[in-house]
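tool_call: predict_structure(chain=1)
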Amino acid sequence: MSTFLSALWRWRDRAEPEWALSTRDLGGFTNMGAPANVPKATVDVTNVGDGDAYKVTVTGDELESEPFVGRYVEGRRMAGVSQPIAVVRTGESFGVIVTAKDATAWDSASFTVSWWHAPTRRRRKWMGLRSAQLSERFYLRDLGDNPALEGDAAAV
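tool_result:
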């Protein structure tokens, strides 16, 4: 019984990544640098947990296209990175640019961050089963008001 409890405690107390979002821009910009009222969001995703995330991928639902994933270089410019991102350590972040497929899809549009726990010295497979991939979904409605509707509200 004590072996079971110590194994359970060790599993429960393991280091895990945790994601925090901060919104950089809502609505985006035109080619000339002027603000645009489109259903678009630029978000920083930061690992604020006490563990590293491995093989990180970002996918989307109800989006115009797949999310653009990148790392910031020289302040505001984002350079794209290929997925999966090998490792996102504690305190590191990456950027995600998402655009809802239309203005009415803002409330249902989302992106999902998926990752694996840290590898161990033991085999990752047991009886042909692999440890589970973890994921967390983020809705665009939780980032802020729909920027595509702000222009319509201002015109009224």
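agent: Residues 2-12 form the longest helix (11 residues). Proceeding to next step.
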